[in-house]
Write a structure and sequence with these properties.
By secondary structure, the protein is an all-alpha fold. Helix content is about 75%, strand content about 0%. It is built from nine helices and no strands.
Length: about 260
């Protein structure tokens, strides 16, 4: 993301960036909806492979881990495809979906590695996020939850940045994380970072609310129904918004470059 003149096709305003992201996503709807279906089918495969697991049991804990990391693996591909699609739109190339899919395969490992590292941070800090079991932390969560959400939002930009990087996968992982942090924390980005935080945290909130409701109502397979459908429906649009703002942050820092072919 450096050395190339700014591209006026990327809107300047916050609303314009959101519109650009969602319109770009809609223009490749067949590809992205097919990937959303793939995300759902991967979750179905896990549900079939480990059926009837009860929350709080070793089998239930295993299922949660498998759900989490299988979702990370397929979500990383979706993130790469969406980021490259937006990059193509910005470069005014309008690459065909087959080319986007192929490029996403090439960048998948870098995005997957970043996603695993980010998930480790999420798992480490989730107790202070206000999601899940509170266990007497309610007062302190008023202060820690917003901070944790912002941290998650900042790190969420690393995946799209790694996907759009022309660097080898190993280097793209570290540059993606460092650029996500450095660009997000530049002065003047606070309002935009708030939008990214909102877009990033909404799926987590929806999944937590859905799981609580399904468990209370004794619905079968609460883990599956509370997480997989929401993940499948939101991962693409959220990645599009994150990519648009990552590109905007790079532009505002004078570091925007043409996405790799």
């Amino acid at each position: 993301m450096n050395g190339v003149p700014q591209r006026p096709a990327l809107p300047e305003s916050i609303g314009g960036l959101v519109d650009f992201a969602l319109e770009s996503y809609a223009r490749r709807a067949p590809l992205y909806l097919a990937l959303a279906l793939l995300v759902f089918l991967v979750g179905c495969a896990v549900e079939v492979a480990i059926p009837g697991a009860v929350l709080g049991t070793p089998r239930g804990d295993l299922k949660l881990v498998v759900f989490e990391f299988s979702s990370i693996a397929i979500d990383a591909y979706v993130i790469a495809a969406v980021a490259l699609g937006l990059g193509s739109e910005l470069a005014k190339e309008r690459a065909p979906s087959s080319r986007i899919a192929g490029a996403a395969t090439e960048r998948w490992l870098a995005v997957l590695t970043v996603s695993v590292l980010v998930q480790l941070v999420v798992d480490t800090t989730v107790a202070f996020s206000g999601l899940g079991k509170i266990d007497g932390l309610a007062p302190i969560l008023l202060f820690t939850a917003p901070i944790v959400w912002v941290i998650w939002a900042i790190l969420s930009l690393a995946g799209p940045i790694a996907a759009l990087s022309a660097q080898p996968a190993a280097i793209a992982v570290f540059s993606g994380l460092s650029r996500a942090i450095g660009l997000s924390l530049r002065s003047g980005n606070l309002a935009r970072l708030a939008v990214i935080t909102l877009a990033t945290i909404v799926p987590y909130l929806l999944q937590q609310i859905a799981q609580d409701v399904l468990v209370q109502q004794h619905v079968a397979r609460p883990i599956f129904w509370a997480t997989i459908p929401i993940d499948a429906l939101t991962i693409g649009p959220v990645a599009a918004i994150q990519t648009a703002f990552a590109l905007d942050f790079a532009r505002r820092a004078g570091m925007l470059e043409k996405p790799p072919d």
